[in-house]
Amino acid sequence: MRKLWVIVLLIVAGACKSGSSLTTSPGDFENYSEDLSGTLPQYPDYKSEMAQLPALPAPESPQAFDEQLKELARQKYERNTSEPYFNGYRILIYSGLDRDLAFKTQEELTEAMPDINPEIQYEQPRYLVKVGRYGHKIEALKLLYDIKSVFPTARIVRDRIQRKDFTLPSQTNNAEGEN
User: Fold this and answer.
1) Would you say which domain of life the source belongs to (predicted)?
2) How far is residue 53 from each of residues 24, 50, 56, 57, 123, measured CA to CA in Å?
3) Rounded distance between C-alpha atoms, residue 119 and residue 131, angstroms
4) Most buried of 72, 102, 157, 170, CB within 10 angstroms?
5) How many domains, in total, are found in the chain?
6) CA 23 distance to own-chain centroid
7) Using one digit for the tens of pLDDT, what is the confidence trace for 73-82?
8) Distance of alpha carbon 80 from alpha carbon 111, whole angstroms
9) In which band, very low, low, confident or very high, does the pLDDT at 170 lie, cut at 50, 70 and 90?
10) Domain containing 103: what range?
11) How far is CA 66 from CA 59, 75, 171, in A?
């Protein structure tokens, strides 16, 4: 135990501040200088680089751009209308295994909001009651807020929606219900 006290005393004595103090004055740093030019990045002269570039050709007329934009818009329209389905949004009112409850939900929604036409879809093993056909989610929000007063669990879901004007002879009338 006595050795422990001696060791602690030596540690405390060694950790104490020494008698001499280091003082610095502003005069100690008068001749200090540091050259940082070797570590700084070098950038080319912007004005001389721009002077060496060739002059740009005169822009085309606005009519030429309009024709290009019309052609691109036509190509996009044709590509979009050539596909029978598009990715959009619907409001999901009911999702469950009970067929009778799905039909009951459809009837309740029709009674509460007669201007809305709910559709029942069967995706094994569940029945879905959906409303609307929207290209963007924000379009569905207004109707969602109205429906939530009657069906608080209603929500917006992504869905594959068949285009109204697109029909193939091999398709049935209710192709969306078979999704």
Assistant:
1) Bacteria
2) 56, 5, 9, 12, 63
3) 6
4) 102
5) 1
6) 60
7) 999 988 877 8
8) 36
9) low
10) 86-163
11) 13, 14, 38
